[in-house]
Amino acid sequence: MSSRQKTANRKTRRRLFRRERKQRVRHITILPSLVTILNGILGFTAIVLASTTGGPDTKTSYFALAGYMVLLAMIADMLDGRLARMSQSTSSFGGQLDSLCDMISFGVAPAFLMLKLVQSTLNLGEIVGGEFLDRFIWLAALAYISCTTIRLARFNAENTENEAAHMSFIGLPSPGAAGVIVSLVIFHQEQVPGLDLLVYALPFITLGLAILMVSGVRYPHVVNVYLKGKQPFGYLIRTLFFLGFVACMKQTALVLIFGIYAGGSLAKWMYYKIVRRHVRPALLEHKPVAGVAPNPEVPN
Length: 300
Known about the structure:
Elements: H1 3-22, H2 30-50, H3 62-86, H4 92-121, H5 130-158, E1 168-170, H6 174-190, H7 196-213, E2 218-220, H8 222-227, H9 233-248, H10 250-286
């Protein structure tokens, strides 16, 4: 290779290096980024609380406190995107940061919380099939984390920064799946601490939520569908009664809210896929065709 070619190659490498350096992120929006990082910190706090042995001085257990940390992380997750869109500062950096923090708060934290609760509540070494159940618990937790990762990656690939596009999701959102798990944990710890049947069912529910996150079921965006825009006056009254119900019976209300959200869209999807699929061909079969006399032997 001649000296001229070596010089040209060095210049080419320098230009490529300078081009790569220009692609670095130089400016970020501080307030939405801080709220997003708070989301991840709350998720990490939930993991630490779930791994703490013993019990706190108050009536609330460490498992319930971990669940409340995940709920606070959901509030932070709602605020960061709203703040970014209000300030017109949405960016790819903010979306990636949000997904990383969501993975901690709504992926790792709920799976770890479920795993520690089941292992600490049930004596797997003394029950029939305890070894199989222990393996299934790990399988459910790993499946939940894996499906959360896939769900967040798919959302980043398909998401748009247009506010009008944020009306529904394909697959159960990870905060909704995490809400089902932590609401059941809080309900078990503060309402029915001796009900082991709920603890037995929790790994199966976790596995079902993992499947829903990567499914094709469409779920509504709660804020943009139910809380955005102008609504009738009666809608405000119903909302106040709903908030009062949540304040009075928060443990039961959390289970109902997240359970209905996760199961309602699934039931609607199953109805359209199964019931309507069989009803529509039957209606078309008996529908009279224009210009053709109906067959008297076939009932209309």
